[in-house]
Amino acid sequence: xxxxxxxxxxxxxxxxxxxxxxxxxxxxxxxxxxxxxxxxxxxxxxxxxxxxxxxxxxxxxxxxxxxxxxxxxxxxxxxxxxxxxxxxxxxxxxxxxxxxxxxxxxxxxxxxxxxxxxxxxxxxxxxxxxxxxxxxxxxxxxxxxxxxxxxxxxxxxxxxxxxxxxxxxxxxxxxxxxxxxxxxxxxxxxxxxxxxxxxxxxxxxxxxxxxxxxxxxxxxxxxxxxxxxxxxxxxxxxxxxxxxxxxxxxxxxxxxxxxxxxxxxxxxxxxxxxxxxxxxxxxxxxxxxxxxxxxxxxxxxxxxxxxxxxxxxxxxxxxxxx
Length: 322
Description:
The N terminus and C terminus are likely disordered. Strand 3 and strand 4 form a beta hairpin. This protein is 41% helix and 16% strand. Helix 2 packs antiparallel against helix 3.
C-alpha cells in the first residue's frame, strides 16, 4: 500500500517470516516472549534503515495457528505410521526402499508439515520422529507479524499504521473499480509513456473523488459510517451497530432508502438540466433546473454541492423531479 506525501511516495507493508527470523538473530531486535497481547511495539533494525518496524502479537491468531499445527501434525503422524507399517511387512531390500519412498512422496506431505519430521528410509522399513526444535522455532512466531513503513511518527502513529495495513478491502475495491466495474482503467490504446502516466493519473484522481464521495455519503450507503469497533489495533474490527441497523431495515434513521454507491449514482443520473423556449417566441430560451427533494436533496447537502442555476440571485424556472 502506498501513501502520497509532499516528499513523494511512502508505503506501508509487512515483513515475511524469513525477515522476521532475521530480527531474532543475536543481537535480537525483540523477544517474542516479552510481547504484550494486542499491543504494538515499535522497533528499528540496521538491516532496514529508514524504516519503522511495528511488531504486533495477536493472541487469538496465535492460539488458532497452534491448534491447527497440532491437528496437521497428528494427521501426518497417522499417515507416516501407516507407511512405516507397510514397509515393515514387506521383504527387505532395494524394492522395499523404493516403494516406501514412493508412498512417502505421494502421501507424506499432503498436510504440508513433513518438514517437521525426521524421516529415515531403510531397506527393511522406515523410522520417523518429530523435529521438535524446528517446530518450536516456527511456533515462536505464531500470531506475530511486523508492519513496516517509511512514514515518520509525525505523519502516522503506530496504531494507525497497523490499522491501515489491516484494511485491505479499500485497496481491493480501488483496484476492482479502476480495472473493471467503475473507472475502467483498461484497456487503453495509448503507446507513449507520458500518455499512459496521464491516463493512470486521471483514473487515480477519479478514484480519489469517488472515495471522498463514499466517505461523505456513508450514512446513505450500505457502508459503516461509524469507525469500525476495534478493541485494539491488532484486534479484529467489528461492524458497528448503525451499519447492522441499516442492513436490517434498508433505511437510514431519517427514513431514506439505503443504496449502494452505484445505485445511488444511477438515481442521481436522472437529474437533468433542460434548455427550453416558448413556442413562437424567439429569444425566450431559459434553463429548467431540477430542484432535488428527499434523498437527492440530502445527497447534495452532504456533498455541500449546489445545482447550477439554483442560487438566490438567479432568476430560473425550477422543476420538481421527485
